[in-house]
């Protein structure tokens, strides 16, 4: 039982790191991210809700397909959507694409 809890906590932590990277890359002025709730839907999809910059009107809900890592799915409040970087308003850059770009810069 203990190992399962440790594995599950590690999974949630990894998803929070990926969500943080996604938000800071695709949105202007994201300084702080607060995660409020993690949950599993009957479909197997998992979700993480939170908000940015200590403003609960800048909220988001990240969706993650069962057994996968967070890439870009979910929803944001209109106020947070207004903070999208101009080049990512139509299509957000996925976490995998951000990581690939960072690896090519660092190599």
From TrEMBL:
Gene3D superfamilies: folded 79 residue fragment of lin0334 like domains. InterPro entries: DUF1433. This is DUF1433 domain-containing protein. It comes from Listeria booriae.
């Amino acid at each position: 039982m203990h190992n399962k809890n440790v594995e599950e906590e590690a999974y949630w932590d990894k998803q929070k790191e990926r969500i943080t990277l996604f938000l800071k890359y695709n949105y202007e002025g994201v300084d702080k991210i607060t995660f409020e709730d993690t949950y599993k839907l009957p479909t197997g999809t998992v979700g993480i809700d939170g908000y940015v910059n200590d403003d609960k009107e800048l909220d988001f809900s990240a969706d993650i397909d069962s057994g996968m890592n967070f890439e870009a799915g979910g929803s944001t409040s209109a106020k947070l959507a207004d903070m999208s970087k101009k080049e990512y308003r139509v299509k957000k850059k996925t976490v995998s694409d951000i990581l690939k770009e960072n690896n090519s810069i660092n190599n």
